[in-house]
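Internal ticket #5521
Category: modeling
Description: The requester needs a full-assembly model to guide mutagenesis choices. All entity lines are attached below as received. Residue total reported by intake: 537.
Assigned to: D.W.
Attached entities:
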Amino acid sequence: MQRSLDINLQTWRLGQRARSRNGVRLFAVSVIACACLSAALATWLPLQLSIVTVFLFAGPHNWFEFRYFLMRLPVRFGRSRNFFIAAFAGIGLLTTGYLALPLLYNFTSWSGGAWFMVLASWNTLLLLWLGLLVWLRGRNKRRSDWSWAIPTALALSSLNWLAPEFFSLAIVYLHPLVALWFLDRHLRRTRPEWLRAYHQCLVLVAVLLAGIVLKLTQTPALPDDNGLFWRITQHSGAQLLPGVSSHLLVSVHLFLEMLHYGVWIVALPLIVPATLRAKQKRKRIWEVKAVGIASHPRGFPKLVGAALLLGAFVVVALWFGFSIDYSTTRDIYFTVAIAHVLAEAPFLLKML
Amino acid sequence: MKRMTAFCALCFLLVAGGNTFADIARPSPSPQPGKVIFHTSMTVIPDKNARDARLQISQDSLNELKAALANTSADSSLRQRIANSPTRTVIAGLCLFLSLSIGGIWLMRSGQPRGQKTVALLLLGVGVVGAAAIITQANAGPPPSYQWRNLSQNLNANKPTYASVDIEILPEGYGMKLVVPVKSQ
C-alpha cells in the first residue's frame, strides 16, 4: 500500500515537472519570438508600424491593464488606506494638470522659458508623488525603511529642473520597460520557476536593443514631411536629440512599445493562465468574476462589470477615432494615456 | 642747407615708412568669428541622377531656424539655457539642498550601521566617479567630428552620411559653405 502510494506520488511529481518544463518552454519561445519579430519590424518599417501598432493595440492594452489593476485592487484598503488615497489623488491631480498643458499652450502666449518652468513643475510634482508613494509603501513593510525615497525624489527633481524636456523624454522611453517589471513581479508570485528563463529573455532584449542602436546609428533621418510622421519623430525625441538619427529613435521607441503591448495583451492575460495546472479553474478574460473585487462576497460585481464594459466601449471608440482622423486621435490618446502611465506606479509598488 | 634738410626728411620718411610698413596697403579687417545660432543634423546623400546640388530643409527645421534668427542672442544649448535661467538654477539647487539634508538626516536616524556604511560607500563612489569624470572630461562624449569620419568613404560608396551640424551666421560673404571636420587617420 505504502509502496503504491509512493509510486503514485512520484508519477504525479514527474508529471508536474514535465508540465512545468513545457510551460517554461512555451513561455520562453513566445517571448523570444515576440522580441525578435518586434525588433525586426521596428527596424524595417518604423513609421508605418508605429501607426499600425498604436491603431491596433493602444486601446486594447489599456483595457487589459485596467482589468489587471482591478484584479490587484483589494476589496478593503485596510492598512494601505493612506497609500491608495495618495495614489488615486495623485493620479487625478497629475492627469488633470497634464491635460491642462495643451489647453494652456493654446490659450496663452507664454515664452519658451515659462513653458520650461511649467513642465519642470509638473515633473517635480510627479517625482514628489512617487517619493511619497514609495515612502507610504515602505511604512507597510515591517523590516524595511523606504524613507530614502524622499531625498531620491528631491535629487531627481533637481536634475529635472536643469533639463525638464529630457526628463519628459525619459518617461517616454522608460514607461514601456515598466511592463517588463510588472511581468517579473507577476512571475515571481505565480511562476517562480519561470523567472530564470524570463531573465535570460531580458538579456536577449538588451542585446536586440544594442543591435538596433548599432545598425541604425548611421542611418539618415526619417522623412517627416507630413504632420503624422513629424508627430511620431517628435514623440521619440528627434527634436531634442538632433545628433541622433530619427530612424534610430523611432525604431527603439517602437520596439519598446511593442514589447509593452506584448506584455499587457499577450503575456499577462494569455500565456500565464494558459499554463495553469489542470485542477486550477481557468477563467475567461471577459468574466467579471475573474476580478477579485467582483467575486468577493463584499465586492462590487456590477460596478466592475460596468467599468469593464465602458472600457471596451472606449476601445471601440478609439478605433473609430483612429479611422476617422488618426493624427488628432493619436494626439488626444497620448495626452490622456498619461493616466495609465501614472496608475502603473502604485500597483507596481504594491507588488514590491 | 635746404637740400640737406630735404634729404634728411626724405631719409626719415623712408626709414619711418619702412618700419611702419606704410608702403603696404591697409589690411582688411580680420573676419569676425561666426555665431552659432542653431544645432541640428544633416545628411549628405550622393545622388547620381541629380543635375545640381540641392539643400533640402524641412519645414520644421526652417521654422526653428527662423525662430533662432529672430532671437540670435538666445543660444539653445543646454548649458547656456541653464546659465540664462537663474530661477531654474535656484530651484534645482534648492531641491538638491533639501535632498542632501533630508538624506543626511535619514541616514543618521536610520540606526542601521550596515545601511549607513552602504550609503556612505555609495555616496563616496558616486563622488569619486563624478570627480574622475569631470577631471578627465569623460562625460564629454565623442566629438561631433566622429559622425563625419566616414564621409569620403560613404561618398565613394554612394552611401549617405548622417551627422550633426552647427548653423553659423557669418557677417560677411555670400552663399553657403559646409565645413566638414576631417581627421588624418
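Resolution: model delivered.
Comment from assignee: The first strand of chain B starts at residue 35 and ends at 44.
Ticket closed.
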